[in-house]
Write a structure and sequence with these properties.
The complex is a heterotrimer of chains A (240), B (225) and C (284). Chain B is mainly α and 225 residues long. Chain B is built from seven helices and no strands. The chains are: A mainly alpha (240), B mainly alpha (225), C alpha/beta (284).
């Protein structure tokens, strides 16, 4: 009985907050403001609660049980973040931020060099300029594609070269190569836009499907929100 | 100013930790790897304290709105709602963690109910509002005013038709050729363009790292000496 | 005012209403529109199908609730269904605090639950929950899993009490990583912190459509075996696994209708632009 009630309340809560968020497409209204503020509050509350859980069982528990007292150090360093709000002791805030930045930066740099830099470059220059299949022979399409990829990658990189003077011979060559890069990126961004449409539409379809689980909540709450938003709009338009 | 308050010490700390991480990545020296691993697990705990900053800042901002409220303006009520909800949901999560003796507050049914029925609804709806604005922008803003814009729109249209599960049906008997063409667009010009962008971004990330480690980039340390 | 100028000035809320109706119709009744399967999805399917028995699989549900509700939930559920059909050791985890609770939602799916019936928690599969710290957390996990997860699994059970984790201490003990990603941290961060440390690590990625163009560069470089392309990839994968429900058919049809609507608006907008634009003045 309690489970059924919780499920029914859940369906209505989902419908209320989803439709409240969508009501912005009709006009700004109190339901949208409610949705906005609730979203922010729950996002912060959730992150804080999850962070509390991690600190509690990773650092605090070993200290309480005496297993590893060294965890006191990161707990104390973490608390230094609160000095962000102090004018006199602001310099203490820099220590935890330095540790977090140094750790993240070191990891990102070391991984980027191999995963994003070297591998992508070797994958480009390693493309065979003439593709010959052992049994099927010369592959014209694959050969053409490889040439296009190499030219287009170089063109895209040349587009972002700003440190060569355009008046020089090298500068002129870089500008021409950059032109190829520009057209390549137009096709790439077009494809990115096409894929973005799919993502956003699927997000909408996912919510819409959940709203249609129960027609009463969907239609009832939609009508309520539309009526309130319309009345609010009329009240705001009335001259003082 | 006292030496320990200057920015040079945190910059040295940043550089030291970054170099240890880089060293332990490329060289298998047990002592360096142990130190790097300890530092990483400590940073995982330290980074969770930043949420305190977020809570204090948002509370200050909305407290200011409540104090500055004018007669006839009721938006301050939402600020009260926000502050109360943040505290309530956080305390509910703490109760969930302590009562279930688990690091995850979603083990508690009440916390999970709010997450599944409100968080999820709002998160999904807020992100998907863009679907409506994409539709209106497609009608009003995305015009082929130049040759480059025309190429972008054609590429977008081809990919949209390819992504729609039944999109290639309109091409009838040449649907397989259309699919091959779409895959060519994704695997050749699109891939080449994004590979160039990835390599450029990697160069940017590495140069930013060097600037931070040499103290030329100090923005992350905040204002002041 | 000409027809095209009137059309251009139409209230934007009418456009939104057209979208609501166009997407709503197939969600009320399936249209059973046809669907082809792309080579990337076939490659993804074959990679999972070819997994040797007993392989250790890391399944990262690095998702936001929005991403999960749209494209990534179907991908995650289909992948989990496929994995549970085989004799594997599956480690579920998430580097997104919003993704960790969704692992249990994946398990509730009827097809996934059917595959889990003869599997034992802690022996055949485990849920390590949220690992904080984004990329730093990934690096820490890669170097020493047990030290990073002092808290234990998502219920607080220590790793020493989970037989599946007995021989899984670092990223070198993982055979395949499947990453269902919304954004950062996601695939590229796994490449930087996991695959850079274990070059033999195989990677499959399920991503949002918006990330597909960039992910194709990683597939072409051999860093990913393959990528599931957003909602379309999920729909194709469900067909290959034979786990399509009427709700999935409706979702696929709604996807088609939504794309048709956007394309129609794009076409109408551009036709109107070319019809109503003033001719360029002749050069003097």
């Amino acid at each position: 009985m309690a489970a059924d009630l919780a499920t029914m309340l859940g369906i209505y809560a989902y419908a209320l907050f989803a439709l409240a968020a969508y009501s912005f497409t009709y006009r700004d209204n109190v339901f949208f403001k409610l949705a906005e503020h609730t979203y922010l509050a729950l996002a912060i509350g959730y992150t804080a609660a999850v962070g509390y859980g991690y600190i509690r069982f990773t650092a605090v528990e070993p200290i309480i049980t005496g297993k590893n007292l060294l965890w006191i150090i990161p707990l104390l360093v973490g608390f230094l973040f609160v000095f962000f709000f102090s004018k006199k002791y602001f310099w203490l805030y820099r220590f935890p931020i330095a540790m977090v930045t140094g750790s993240g930066m070191g990891l990102a740099m070391s991984g980027t060099i191999s995963a994003q830099f070297l591998v992508q470059i070797t994958a480009t220059i390693g493309l065979p300029l003439v593709v010959v299949h052992p049994t099927l022979g010369f592959q014209a399409m694959d050969t053409l594609n490889n040439w296009l990829i190499i030219i287009m990658v170089i063109g895209t990189l040349a587009y972002f070269f700003f440190s060569i003077a355009p008046e020089t011979g090298l500068g002129k060559a870089t500008s021409k190569a950059g032109l190829i890069g520009r057209w390549t990126m137009m096709i790439a961004f077009g494809s990115a836009f096409g894929n973005t449409v799919m993502t956003r539409m699927n997000l909408f379809i996912g919510v819409y499907r959940n709203l249609l689980r129960d027609y009463t909540s969907f239609i009832g709450l939609a009508v309520l929100i539309l009526v309130v938003a319309t009345l609010q709009g009329r009240r705001e338009k009335k001259p003082e | 100013m006292s030496f320990y308050k200057r920015k040079e010490i945190p910059i040295l700390l940043t550089t030291f930790i970054a170099l240890v991480m880089i060293f332990s990545f490329f060289f298998k020296v047990p002592a360096a790897q142990d130190f790097a691993n300890t530092m990483q697990t400590w940073v995982l705990v330290i980074v969770n304290f930043t949420v305190i900053l977020g809570i204090v800042m948002i509370t200050r901002m909305h407290k200011g709105r409540i104090e500055k409220r004018k007669p006839g303006d009721y938006s301050w009520i939402f600020s009260v709602w926000l502050i109360v909800l943040v505290i309530f949901y956080f305390l509910l999560g703490v109760y969930g963690v302590e009562s279930t003796r688990s690091a995850s507050p979603t083990r508690d049914p009440a916390f999970a109910w709010v997450y599944n029925n409100v968080n999820v609804a709002l998160d999904s709806a807020m992100y998907s509002i863009l679907a409506f604005y994409i539709s209106s922008a497609a009608f009003r803003a995305f015009k082929a005013r130049t040759k480059e814009a025309a190429v972008l729109l054609v590429s977008a249209a081809v990919i949209m038709l390819y992504n729609a599960p039944a999109g290639s049906v309109i091409f009838g008997p040449v649907a397989p050729q259309f699919n091959l063409f779409s895959e060519w667009i994704l695997n050749v010009p699109n891939m080449a363009g994004f590979r160039g962008i990835l390599i450029g971004a990697a160069v940017g990330a590495i140069s930013l790292g060097i600037r931070v480690m040499t103290g030329r980039e100090r923005g992350y340390l905040g204002a002041g000496e | 005012m000409s027809f095209w100028k009137k059309l251009e000035a139409v209230d934007v809320r009418l456009i939104f209403l057209v979208l609501w109706i166009a997407v709503g119709i197939p969600l009320l009744t399936p249209l059973y529109l046809p669907l082809s399967i792309s080579p990337d999805t076939v490659k993804y399917y074959e990679a999972v199908e070819a997994l040797p028995a007993g392989s250790v699989i890391a399944f990262g549900t690095d998702v936001s609730p929005a991403g999960y509700g749209g494209e990534l939930g179907p991908q995650a559920r289909a992948t989990a269904t496929h994995l549970f059909r085989k004799p594997l050791k599956i480690i579920f985890l998430s580097f997104w605090e919003t993704g960790a609770p969704l692992i249990e939602d994946v398990w509730k799916n009827p097809f996934v639950a059917a595959g889990m019936k003869d599997k034992k928690y802690g022996v055949d599969y485990v849920n390590l929950g949220w690992v904080p710290g984004t990329e730093t957390g990934m690096a820490s996990f890669a170097m020493d899993i047990w030290k990073t997860l002092e808290k234990g699994d998502y219920k607080g059970t220590k790793l020493a009490d989970l037989p599946i984790m007995a021989n899984v201490k670092t990223v070198n003990d993982i055979y395949l990583l499947i990453c269902i990603e919304t954004g950062t941290p996601g695939g590229p961060e796994y490449l930087r912190q996991w695959q850079a440390r274990n070059p033999r690590l195989k990677v499959l990625v399920g991503s949002l459509g918006v990330s597909v163009p960039a992910n194709i560069a990683y597939v072409a470089a051999g860093q990913y075996i393959s990528v599931l392309r957003g909602g379309r990839g999920a729909t194709e994968y469900q067909r290959l696994l034979n786990i399509v429900t009427p709700a999935d058919v409706m979702g696929a049809d709604a996807m088609t209708m939504s794309h048709v609507v956007v394309l129609a608006f794009l076409l109408l907008g551009n036709v109107g632009y070319f019809v109503t634009r003033k001719p360029k003045p002749a050069k003097t």
